[in-house]
Write a structure and sequence with these properties.
Length: about 80
């Protein structure tokens, strides 16, 4: 099973995301995080080993770019 967590920008939202990541990882559930380059998301999660994949996107991008960014064959994610 895979679960996607999104949100962030502020420490309040990110601390909730971190707690979910810890619990889901403990339950052997693969976690994907999607955050923004505009907040603290990358800083909090770029080195998080419990995440299956991590994506950071520019806030305010148009819908066509968003569709391309989340194509499962597209490898635009932090490693």
């Amino acid at each position: 099973m895979k679960i996607c967590i999104t949100g962030g920008g502020t420490g309040g939202h990110l601390s909730v995301a971190k707690a979910l990541i810890d619990e889901l990882s403990f339950r052997n559930i693969k976690v994907i995080f999607i955050g923004s380059t505009k907040g603290q998301d990358k800083l909090w999660f770029e080195n998080e080993k419990k995440l299956y994949k991590k994506y950071v996107i520019d806030a305010g991008i148009d819908e066509n770019v968003m569709k391309e960014e989340f194509d499962v064959d597209n490898e635009h994610y932090m490693e």
